[in-house]
Specification:
Blueprint (H helix, E strand, L loop, with lengths): L1 E3 L2 H10 L5 E6 L5 H13 L2 E6 L19 H10 L4 E3 L3 H4 L17 H5 L3 H16 L3 E5 L3 H13 L5 E5 L19 H24 L2 H15 L3 E9 L12 E9 L4 E9 L4
Parallel strand pairs: 1-4, 2-3, 2-5, 3-4, 5-6
Antiparallel strand pairs: 7-8, 8-9
């Protein structure tokens, strides 16, 4: 595996492999089984696998956890090697953003719901770095986890709307044995919070089961919220059900429904979701 830090090195490697299929997995590092699922899928599908590790400052707000975001480049390098990554791109912020262009990308309505409502500008920053990385890597396929469902919806919509020559591949959420979604932020949970955190997924399961039985979305959402409030010390940021990937209200024409939640614990904000096909009930 080649580990590189500069855009020029990356450009040279991509040019040498321009006739091969390239699978790309962008990450912020502190790799876990969720990331490894993306890398494994990319390895199966492509001639070359490129992964990036970049804690993108553009997607963190002034009071968010940029400096606290967990980092372990030594472990990440070993895990990437073991997963069969060919090129690991680990740029600095200065390398990625050498100057302020004054040009911004605005997500619009897709960023006004769910995580975007409490993190203004976050998804603008995501698209800023994704645009740059896609232009540099020129991937055949790019791999994203369903756990970050709003991010996935925004990237899918962006790629389709602006004709990026890349296929976005969804990879299902990887979970602990008790159902907790794998996340780099799980390390910030206390022992008690770790026990409580499993109830995010349980609440989503309860909400989806209630909806499938009753076709009553407000009742399903209320059921999920009540479960989190009764079984955790966390503060609910949101628990909602929206059409996917448009992230609008569910209508008769909706084909997929996203049940999603975010909960604040003392030192971590956790997200989770379940994506369900809408059926006539």
């Amino acid at each position: 595996m080649q580990t590189i830090q500069t855009i020029n090195e990356l450009k040279q490697i991509i040019e040498l492999n321009k006739d091969k299929t390239i699978g790309f997995v962008p990450t912020m590092g502190y790799l876990h089984e969720g990331h490894l699922a993306l890398l494994t899928k990319a390895r199966i599908d492509n001639d070359i696998v490129v992964a990036s590790i970049f804690v993108n400052p553009a997607q963190f707000g002034p009071n968010e956890d940029l400096d606290r975001y967990p980092r372990d480049i030594e472990s990440d390098t070993q895990l990437a090697t073991d997963a069969g990554v060919d090129v690991l791109f680990v740029p600095s912020a200065k390398e990625m953003y050498p100057f302020e262009s004054g040009i911004s990308i605005g997500v619009g309505n897709l960023s006004t719901k769910l995580c975007g409502e409490s993190r203004p500008g976050h998804f603008d920053g995501v698209l800023k770095v994704i645009t740059k990385l896609f232009n540099l890597v020129q991937p055949t396929k790019a791999y994203f986890g369903q756990k970050d469902a709003q991010q996935l919806a925004i990237i899918e919509t962006f790629v389709n709307a602006y004709n990026f020559p890349v296929e976005i591949v969804r990879v299902q959420t990887v979970r602990e044995l008790d159902g907790l979604a794998k996340s780099s932020r799980n390390v910030f949970l206390s022992e008690q919070e770790r026990l409580e955190a499993v109830h995010l997924y349980k609440a989503l399961q309860l909400a989806t089961e209630t909806w499938e039985k009753t076709n009553d979305l407000p009742a399903a959402i209320a059921k999920g919220k009540e479960h989190i409030e009764s079984n955790t010390s966390g503060k609910i940021d949101y628990l909602e059900a929206l059409s996917y990937p448009t992230l609008q209200s569910v209508t008769d024409d909706t084909k997929e429904v996203l049940f999603a939640t975010a909960v604040f614990f003392e030192k971590a904000r956790l997200i989770d979701n379940i994506l369900k096909e809408k059926k006539d009930v």
